[in-house]
Task: inverse folding
């Protein structure tokens, strides 16, 4: 492929100005409000038969877990290991899997190596078929975990929690569901998932489109034909539009491009796409691993992607190559700030150079180059996305950072040009930093009937992102004041372990209710502020994304709704040190029933 780039590399100041200009044209006054919920008919579950019914359940139990993805499943598995088997799992979907239940779009796979992403491989003996597991394989593995640890007998599928209220007299949570269930439970675990609630762009006229439309998490194979592993033959002769160029679109575009007559990819911000280098699993290598290998590999990967630079990089892929320097830390001098920015620019320049090397048309190549820092959005890795734009039936519609102007009955409009399509696919992702009760779909009511939205009206109040004052025996697995990491399953595994240990400790010590003292919550908030100083500086220069709440103005709520931006291992250290104290510090407990 000829080298299309004949320009001189930009200086440090020129690159900073380029980044700033790209950021400014993408900042919108509506911030997070630029997104909207899925239409009711679009939000239905296409993977279950309609008409499911069952008798309502009235039951007392020790734990109710909201969510059947990895967070909820791992919590249940850890509870079982502690001898606690009296629990229910309430899940909207028709099976376990969470994100991997919903995301069945063609080409979907995990961007983190399967040997570190899939939990409990040593315990199940499961060998992923490829280095980066497909969504269908991960969904299958989720069901295997559920069978192995007998989770199906505890599950209430196709069921939403509609209300959860703390009963101060009985010291239990009263949980009501969309199926009429009435559950009384000592502990309520909110494991609703990091990528749980799908969203649509709030584009003018979106309701007026008369063609077929769906979100990637509700893929309609009845319309497209095929399956996650088979060609979509029904798209032959069809004009297809995809709105979005993030991690989902990067995987969808090559699949649709193979069959559609015309494919229009509507881009607001170019994604950063490195080499994936997919490979089949070497069975001999996998079977030769010694006990403890997966934990060692997980920790090694987390060190590598947070700049700790382990002595040996066990994973050695695009993630560890790009992230081995932590460019988010707070510089101690102008010279260090320059060095960090230069390292970040150089890492992203390898991504931009790949675009130059792959794309035939120089104008298209320039539009596909991401001018933002490597921590501003999630880096993608794919071998077929960029080459798809060399195909004559694939058209990049770059909106110069503004997004689609409107949608008519025929299709999207950009710069006054209408693009008629038969099918419109929204690769617009999930809510991540919106209010927790909004993503959960219900508003827990704690002590004195105060709702979570009211208690957190000016921002979250938690200890470690897990326990919340005013909401006894409610345990959270969430990004809100919790951890964050490239390998989400590592974070979820450790969070689940922490939640299960708290419940076990309460059982052992006769603790009827537990919640943090407000002083402990403020102490944790100060930790978040201290760790987040470098990240705040870094993200202030980023293009808008869910990582920075679309660059929405910082207010009281945003100043509290933080995430622990340091290493997952450092976050886990806080949890472990707190658990190691014989009597949990910073919490209020009740050991005598009211009235005794």
Result:
């Amino acid at each position: 492929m000829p080298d299309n780039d004949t320009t001189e590399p930009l200086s440090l100041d020129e690159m900073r100005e380029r980044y700033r200009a790209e950021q400014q044209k993408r900042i919108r006054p509506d911030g997070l409000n630029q997104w909207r919920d899925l239409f009711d008919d679009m939000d239905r579950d296409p993977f279950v038969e309609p008409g499911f019914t069952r008798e309502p359940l009235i039951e007392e139990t020790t734990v109710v877990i909201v969510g059947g993805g990895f967070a909820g499943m791992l919590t249940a598995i850890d509870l079982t290991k502690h001898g606690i088997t009296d629990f229910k799992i309430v899940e909207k979907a028709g099976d376990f899997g969470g994100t991997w239940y919903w995301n069945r779009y063609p080409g979907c796979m995990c961007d983190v190596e399967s040997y570190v992403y899939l939990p409990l491989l040593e315990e199940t003996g499961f060998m992923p078929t490829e280095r980066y597991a497909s969504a269908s394989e991960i969904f299958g593995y989720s069901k295997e975990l559920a069978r192995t640890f007998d989770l199906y007998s505890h599950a209430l599928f196709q069921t939403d929690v509609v209300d959860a209220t703390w009963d101060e007299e009985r010291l239990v949570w009263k949980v009501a569901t969309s199926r009429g269930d009435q559950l009384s439970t000592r502990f309520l675990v909110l494991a609703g998932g990091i990528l749980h609630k799908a969203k649509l762009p709030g584009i003018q006229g979106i309701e007026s489109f008369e063609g077929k439309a769906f979100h990637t998490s509700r893929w309609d194979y009845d319309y497209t034909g095929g399956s996650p592993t088979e060609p979509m033959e029904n798209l032959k002769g069809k004009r297809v539009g995809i709105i979005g160029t993030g991690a989902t679109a990067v995987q969808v575009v090559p699949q649709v491009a193979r069959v559609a007559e015309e494919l229009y990819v509507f881009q607001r911000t170019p994604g950063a796409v490195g080499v994936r280098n997919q490979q089949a699993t070497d069975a001999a290598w996998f079977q030769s691993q010694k006990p403890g290998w997966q934990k060692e590999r997980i920790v090694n990967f987390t060190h590598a992607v947070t700049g700790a630079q382990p002595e040996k990089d066990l994973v050695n892929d695009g993630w560890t190559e790009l992230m081995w320097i932590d460019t988010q830390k707070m510089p101690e001098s102008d010279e260090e700030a320059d060095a960090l920015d230069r390292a970040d620019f150089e890492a992203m320049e390898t991504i931009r150079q790949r675009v130059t090397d792959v794309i035939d048309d120089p104008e298209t190549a320039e539009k596909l180059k991401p001018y933002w820092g490597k921590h501003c959005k999630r880096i993608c890795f794919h071998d077929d996305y960029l080459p798809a734009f060399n195909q004559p039936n694939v058209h990049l519609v770059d909106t110069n950072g503004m997004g689609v102007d409107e949608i008519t009955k025929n299709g999207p409009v950009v710069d006054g040009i209408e693009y008629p399509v038969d099918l419109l696919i929204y690769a617009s992702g999930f809510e991540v930093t919106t209010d927790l009760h909004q993503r959960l779909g219900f508003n827990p009511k704690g002590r004195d009937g105060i709702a979570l939205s009211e208690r957190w009206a000016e921002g979250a109040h938690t200890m470690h992102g897990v326990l919340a004052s005013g909401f006894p025996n409610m345990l959270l697995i969430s990004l809100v004041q919790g951890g964050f990491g490239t390998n989400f399953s590592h974070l979820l595994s450790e969070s689940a372990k922490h939640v299960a240990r708290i419940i076990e400790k309460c059982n052992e010590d006769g603790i009827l209710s537990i919640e943090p003292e407000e002083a402990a919550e403020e102490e944790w908030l100060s930790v978040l502020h201290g760790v987040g100083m470098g990240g705040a500086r870094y993200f202030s220069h980023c293009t808008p994304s869910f990582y920075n709440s679309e660059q929405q103005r910082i207010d009281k709520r945003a100043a509290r709704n933080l995430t622990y931006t340091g290493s997952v291992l450092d976050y886990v250290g806080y949890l472990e040190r707190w658990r190691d104290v014989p009597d949990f510090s910073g919490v209020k407990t009740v050991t005598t029933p009211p009235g005794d």
